[in-house]
Amino acid sequence: MYPEETQQLSRLLVERISLKTNQKNKSKTFTHWEDATARYLVAESPQDTRRVLVLVTYRPTQLLPLYMASARRAVKLVNAVVALVTANAYISTLGGGHFLCRHLNQSTLLAKLQIGISMGLQDPVLESKCRVNLMYNALQLGKFKRARRILRREERVAEQLDSSELRKVCHAATVYLDKMDRLHKEEMLFHKNGGRPATLHDNFYRQRIVRMTNSLNVKQVEGHKLNLDAVPMVYSFMSKTVALVSTLLAALGSANAELETVKLSHPYGSSAEVFLFGAHVKSFRAAMDPNLDVLFMSNDSYLDGVNPIRGGIPVVFPNFGGAPGFPNHGFARITNWTLAGVEEAADKNSPSVATFTMAASNSTRQMWPVEFELEYEVKLYANQLETALHVHNTFTEQIEFHTLLHNYLWVDDSQNEGVVVSGLKGVDYFDQVAKVNKTETREFISFNGSVQTGNTYLNAPDQVVATIKGVQFMDRTVTVQKAGFITGDAGQNQVETQTDAVVWNPGAERAKKLEDFGDEEYINMVAIEPGRVSVKQPLPAGQTFTLQQNITVTTL
C-alpha cells in the first residue's frame, strides 16, 4: 500500500507531537488512529471543548476535510490545492504528507523548513514552490513588500527553469497578492479619511476576498456544520519522498525552540555570544563601549535552525558562493556544531574561550565524499575578538576547499563616507559585480548607496581597517588582522599560506532582493571577510589548515 518506512515516520511524528503537547497541556486528552490514507491525532480540552487535529497523510491529493469543532474552522484539500477559512487553520506540506498548524508563525517555520529541505535535495523547482509557500505566510503577516519581493524572485526562477507548472503557481499567487494589496490600500484610505479603525487582520482580508469568489457549499463533517468558503492559499506540490519526511523529522525536535547560544564574558566588561547552529558568532561587545555591538545582525534574518543566519560571523566552508551539489557558502554555517568546552578568563590579561567542533557525517559525505574535522575557537579579550578555524584532513588523500570568516560589522552610516576601508591600495582584486579583474587605486574605499560593492582582494595584506564615524556611538576603528597557515601531524613545520579579503556591501538595489535582509539595512553594515576563496586551499592528508583573525576595536 504505502512504504513501511513512510508509515513509521508518520507514526513517530504523531507520537512526538502528542508527547510534547501533553507535557505542556496535562489537562488535555489525546486520541490517535490511522486508516488507509493517514494517521490522525486529536487533542481535546475539557475546559474549552476545543478540538485540535493533527494529520499526516500518505495521499496528498485526496479530499480531506479537517476541522476544529468549537471554532467551526475547516481546511479542504483538493488535488494538492489548499483552501482554508482563517489564519488559525493552515496546512503546510511535508514531503507527501500534510501538517495542520494552528498559528501562522508555526506555518512560517515549517515553510522555512521546507526550503532548507528542498535545497538539500538540490531540487530548484521544489525549492521555488516552497518559497511561494513562504510568500503566502509573509502576506498573511502583513509583510506585503516582502511577499512581493519573494514572488518576483520566483517568477524569474520560473522563466529560467522554463517550468510551466511553476509559472501557474506564481500566477495564482500574483492574483491573490494583488487582491490583498488592493484591499489593504482601500482599508487604509478609509481609515485615513476618518472611517472606523482599519481592520487589518487576516480574517478581514479573507472574508472580503471570499465574497469576491464563488462560495463553496456548507457541508456536514462528522455532524458539525462547517462553512467551507475559502480562497486557495497555498499550492503545495511537494514530492512524496521519504528522504524529505525524515529530514523534516530530524529538524522537528528543535525547530520550535530558540537557537542554543553560548555566552562569553570578560573581567574588563566585554562579551560575546555564539550560536551552536553554524558556530555562528552573533554578538561582540567591547569593553570600551558595552552598549555598542561591533557586529551587525539583520532584523530579518532567519533564526530557525535551518536557513543561514544573516549577520554576525558566518563560517563559510567548504565552498564560497554557489557550487553544484552544495548549499550556498557551504554546509558549515547551516550545521549544528558541538560545544567542546568553555574556559572563563583567569585574569584580565587572558581570554575567555569557547571551542566548537564538527566532523564529516552522512549528510556531508553525500555532497563531499571526504573525511575531515573542524575546530573553531572563539577567544574574547577586553577589546578584541579572536576566531580561528582549524580544518583537519582526516582523509586518506589531499582535499581542497574554500573557507572564509564572513564578518558583518555594524556602522552608524555606510553612506557619505560614514565608513571607509583602508589597507588595500595596490592590491589586485576581482570585482564580483562587474565580473572583471582590477587593481585597487584608492587609499580609502567608500560605498555608493545604490550600487553593490563586492570585491575579492587576492593575497591581501594581513591587516584591513574600517574607520567608522560615530552617530549613535563614538568614532572608532575596527581592525581585522588575518593569517593562514598549514601545520603537520604533530603541529610542527608551520607554513604560511596566501589569504584573501572580501569587502562587501549590498547597496540599496541588492538589499531589496535579499529576503532575509531589510531594504535599508545596507546603511548599517559593511563586511570585511578574511579567507581563502580566490583559489581552493589544498590540504594534504593528515595536515591542518588554520584561518585565524583578530577583530580589534579602538576609539579615535
Automatic annotation (TrEMBL):
GO cellular component: cytoplasm
Protein family according to the UniProt entry: Belongs to the glucose-6-phosphate 1-epimerase family.
Molecular-function annotations in GO: carbohydrate binding; glucose-6-phosphate 1-epimerase activity
Keyword Isomerase: yes
Stated name of the protein: glucose-6-phosphate 1-epimerase
Listed EC numbers: 5.1.3.15
GO BP: carbohydrate metabolic process
Catalysed reaction, written as an equation: alpha-D-glucose 6-phosphate = beta-D-glucose 6-phosphate
Annotated PANTHER family: APOSPORY-ASSOCIATED PROTEIN C-RELATED, GLUCOSE-6-PHOSPHATE 1-EPIMERASE
Major enzyme class: isomerase
Lineage top rank: taxon: Eukaryota
Keyword field: Isomerase
